């Protein structure tokens, strides 16, 4: 077990997963709009399995895809965090930053607020040299988060190995954020 890292932002608490997260996580994973850029919505069992994997990785490493709690009302609204992708990606090894929020939590800046704080952990506490993100080409909302974070779109467009050839979501874009660029942008803000 590693030392647990949890994160506070002005409006959010990124924390280890709890059993009580399973029901709201299953609800957002069953929402076709939330899952529009994934092969399919998740069943309750698939959703519980993903929550358990997130929890186990945070137990093992101290960091991961954290459960995202809204401070105003204590509600679980999804996950944001850092992860080592399991798929055989053409740019592996890498650490990705990722997010998935319930639809009622979109349009309020929560994903970007949480992700900015996760980048601080990734670069300052974990000492990563680069953090990447990737998504299906058409996922404009996710790409907009990457761009707000100062990530740069790579020239690489790749076929996600977990999807079958010809699947309409198979082509993915890659965004990168090298530590030096993040540091330069962060210095520019002070
Ligand atoms: C990707 C996803 C997390 C993006 O959520 P989002 O709410 O659009 O992104 P942010 O949290 O950064 O919010 C930005 C929006 O909040 C608005 N906003 C409102 N109040 C704000 C505030 N206080 N601070 C910042 N932005 C605010 C911004 O203007 C922006 O609005 P716009 O979308 O109309 O331009 C969300 O769409 C999602 O969960 N999608 C499904 C899962 C998914 O596809 N994940 C990615 C797979 S790679």
From TrEMBL:
The keyword Lyase does not apply. It comes from the Bacteria. Keywords: Acyltransferase, Transferase. Its EC number is 2.3.1.-. PROSITE patterns: GNAT (PS51186). GO terms for molecular function: acyltransferase activity. Residues 12-170 form the N-acetyltransferase domain. It is an enzyme of class 2 (transferase). InterPro entries: Acyl_CoA_acyltransferase, GNAT_dom, N-acetyltransferase. Gene3D superfamilies: 3.40.630.30. This is Acetyltransferase.
């Amino acid at each position: 077990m590693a030392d647990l890292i949890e994160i506070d932002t002005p409006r959010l608490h990124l924390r280890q997963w709890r059993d009580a997260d399973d029901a709201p996580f299953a609800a957002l994973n069953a929402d076709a709009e939330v899952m529009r850029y994934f092969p399919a919505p998740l069943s309750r069992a698939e959703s519980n399995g993903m929550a358990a994997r997130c929890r186990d990785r945070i137990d093992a490493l101290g960091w991961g895809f954290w459960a995202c709690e809204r401070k105003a009302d204590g509600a679980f609204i999804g996950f944001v965090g850092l992860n080592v992708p399991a798929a055989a990606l053409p740019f592996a090894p890498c650490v990705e930053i990722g997010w998935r929020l319930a639809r009622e939590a979109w349009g309020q800046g929560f994903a970007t607020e949480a992700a900015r704080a996760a980048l601080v952990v990734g670069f300052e506490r974990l000492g990563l040299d680069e953090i990447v993100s990737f998504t299906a080409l058409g996922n404009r909302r996710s790409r907009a988060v990457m761009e707000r974070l100062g990530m740069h779109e790579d020239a690489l467009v790749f076929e996600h190995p977990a999807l079958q050839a010809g699947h309409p979501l198979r082509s993915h874009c890659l965004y990168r954020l090298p530590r030096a660029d993040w540091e330069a942008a962060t210095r520019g803000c002070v």
